[in-house]
Amino acid sequence: MDTSTSQILTVLGSIIFLLMCACAYLFYSFVTKEDTIKTMKETYQKLMRSFNDLDEQAKMIVRTDLELNKTREEMDRRLNVLNAVQRTSRQMSQALNESEIFQRISPNLFEDLGFVRVLIASKNDHHILKVRLNIGYKEPRVEAILKEIEAEPSLKAALREDRSLSSINCSNKTREKISQVFEVEHFIFSPIMTQNGNIGFVFAGNRYNAPEVTQGDEELITIFAGQIGQSVENAQLFEKVFRSSQELELKVSERTKQLAGALQKVNDISKKKSEFISAVSHELRTPLTSIKGYAAILIAGKIGEVPVAVKDRLAKINSHSDNLVGLINDLLDIARIESGRQEMKFADYKIKNLIDNVADLLTPQISAKGVTLNIRLAEQIEGIYVDISHAERVFINLVSNAIKFTPPNGTITIALSASLESGYAVFSVSDTGIGIPASELQKLFSEFFRVDNEINQHVKGTGLGLVLAKNIVQAHGGKIWVQSQVGVGTTFFFTLPCSKKSFDEHQAPEQLEHKNDA
Questions:
Q1: pTM, 2 dp
Q2: For the domain 344-505, what is the CATH code?
Q3: What are the domain boundaries of the chain?
Q4: Which of 32, 73, 139, 185 has the most beta carbons within 10 angstroms of its beta carbon?
Q5: What pairs with residue 411 in β-bridges?
Q6: CB 490 within 8 A of CB 480
Q7: Span 385-394, average pLDDT
Q8: pLDDT at 65
Q9: pLDDT of residue 513
Q10: With contact defined as beta carbons under 8 Å apart, do 416 and 381 qualify?
Q11: Is the pLDDT of residue 514 over 80?
């Protein structure tokens, strides 16, 4: 009872006391007067009626106050239950598997709601109901209830149709059947649903001496069952994603192992190929040297004069021997560089001196073809850190190719960019030749590959020049690439280190391994 009610009752008591005193005084003063007695009786009766009215009003105030207190207590209890449901729902939503979801449902939640018998069940992988929470039932009875649920049409229909049943919203027949199955008088039965259909139920009930469930109770249990279904669905989705991720990782791991094995096989084959080429090349050089030597002796007439026709054929033998020796030398260099056995003698060199040497060496071929050689070197970059003999071969191979595919009166340009690329100088050799189709560009640096064009059909070549240039550039920690347009020309770009520091920073791990092996 609050303060305002107490004050009202105190005032009413004081008024009643004053009225009684007034009655006594009047009776005493006019007791000797008969006409006054009658008046007093009437007054007394009026006062008694007022007293009775005030008494009824006081009782009504007390009853109202008690009802308000009871309502407030019920609202506080409901608010606490709602907070508990919210906390439980939040905890369930954070669970990562179905078992953990049901483990986070506290029995206190239903006790706060006033339920003494609770069953929560869900279907396992074999679609058989399994009890997840049991309050107030013994195990043998639980098994019997689950069997009766499977056999009761009204409960099966409710599960299938996602329809809650309670003792206040179902027919008398259904109510009696459910009360019989669960041994309760008041109850709420709510399905647990996911997108794939029903997966279980939530049941909460009371015995015969408990208060009737309310519409609010039914809504709360229905919402809670829906939250369980959502949490289970989220956990299943997480498990599916996690399992897919694990399977993907396993496949990636297996594929990586397969690729690593394949790469190892390729490396082994490449190593054996290089060893084979190296061995065969060495074996070929000896007889070629003898052939070339005997041809030179015969041409010189050291063992007697030979006819002119024979000399011409001996000259061809000598020329072809030179070509074969060049081919063998290229193969040996490629094999050595790929295997890391090629001895590289790095030092600082002036770029201008290197380019001038290349230009002097190729001037006869340039003049004979009738093309112009332009040299454009950025003054900001003066030196590079290279094996000079191999670096010259890169320029020689690229410029020789340019001479081959550039028509008379065309232009070949050797250029050095003014900007560095991570400490590496960027060179280019461009021509105004016939160009290369885009479909052939990716194959250019493959061994023995030659672009199918009219010039290659009439000019002999090995298809090793660009491969050798690429290997030399990579041995310097650089890279090489090409741009071309048919009918316009081709430009080869490549990078070489400007200093020992740049070279050391850009060496590939496999190059370091080869160097250590050597």
A1: 0.45
A2: 3.30.565.10
A3: 93-239, 344-505
A4: 185
A5: 372
A6: no
A7: 88
A8: 74
A9: 40
A10: yes
A11: no
